[in-house]
């Protein structure tokens, strides 16, 4: 198994891409801390599914916008599994508001969950990796919108642009400690965050037409890339972004 004896934390791990990562990692032998803020019942069901498949998982209620909670989350992995090997900064939200419409409260919430959590999650994990003396890996679930404007969703785009620069700079700073930082940037994915789009046939038709592969990604396809990166088979990658978007950034001028 690709992730046997690997201890992993996945933020926002009880739904969408996070849930797919947890299930895929468990199948490959990882022991996982599932961070969540809502829906403890869904977390319990996910843990049961992992254990039924022979894996190991535990849930931790932690608000990723708070540095103390991030520390609690990392410590849970150390306490449960003896160490930390991989942190996946997956938690994220959108507001779907333009520059002229975005409120200060909305802006701060998006930045706290999408960018601040990735920054201090990376910091906390890196300190643990260095303390262990083992190196380690941070995978940030970013977005094609780290580089590609999305009018009407500006705070989200700004947060993901920040995650891109965090990944690049942290990867350079932490390289001498054998700590790597990589972005995974999905395009459109079949997850709850895109439920409004998926419920509108006309929007889905336009979206599918804009994607060269003709469809949205499945969350499991994003998870497969994460598993590959965490497996050690991509050990020379750091400070960069792996884009998995069905070609949308090349095939369309924007949505």
Automatic annotation (TrEMBL):
Keyword Oxidoreductase recorded: yes
E.C. code: 1.1.1.47
Taxonomic superkingdom: Bacteria
The entry's keywords: Oxidoreductase
Pfam family of the protein (one): adh_short_C2
NAD as UniProt keyword: no
Similarity comment: Belongs to the short-chain dehydrogenases/reductases (SDR) family.
Entry protein name: Glucose 1-dehydrogenase
Organism: Nocardioides marmorisolisilvae
């Amino acid at each position: 198994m690709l992730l046997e004896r690997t201890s992993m934390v996945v933020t926002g791990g009880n739904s969408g891409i996070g849930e797919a990562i947890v299930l895929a990692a468990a199948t490959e032998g990882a022991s996982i801390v599932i961070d969540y803020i809502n829906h403890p019942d869904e977390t319990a069901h996910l843990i049961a599914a992992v254990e039924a498949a022979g894996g190991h998982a535990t849930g931790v209620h932690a608000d990723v916008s708070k540095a103390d909670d991030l520390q609690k989350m990392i410590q849970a992995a150390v306490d449960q599994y003896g160490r930390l090997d991989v942190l996946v900064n997956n938690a994220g939200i959108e507001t779907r508001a333009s520059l002229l419409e975005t409120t200060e409260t909305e802006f701060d919430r998006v930045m706290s969950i999408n960018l601040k959590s990735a920054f201090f999650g990376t910091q906390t994990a890196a300190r643990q990796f260095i303390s262990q003396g083992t190196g380690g890996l941070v995978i940030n679930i970013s977005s094609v919108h780290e580089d590609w404007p999305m009018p009407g969703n500006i705070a989200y785009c700004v947060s993901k642009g920040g995650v891109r620069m965090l990944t690049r700079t942290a990867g350079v700073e932490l390289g001498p400690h054998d700590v790597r930082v990589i972005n995974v940037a999905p395009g459109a994915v079949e997850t709850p965050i895109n439920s409004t789009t998926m419920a509108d046939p006309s929007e889905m038709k336009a979206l599918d037409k804009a994607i060269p592969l003709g469809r949205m990604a499945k969350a499991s396809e994003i998870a497969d890339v994460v598993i590959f990166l965490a497996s050690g088979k991509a050990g020379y990658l750091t400070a960069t972004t792996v884009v998995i978007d069905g070609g949308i950034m090349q095939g369309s001028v924007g949505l």
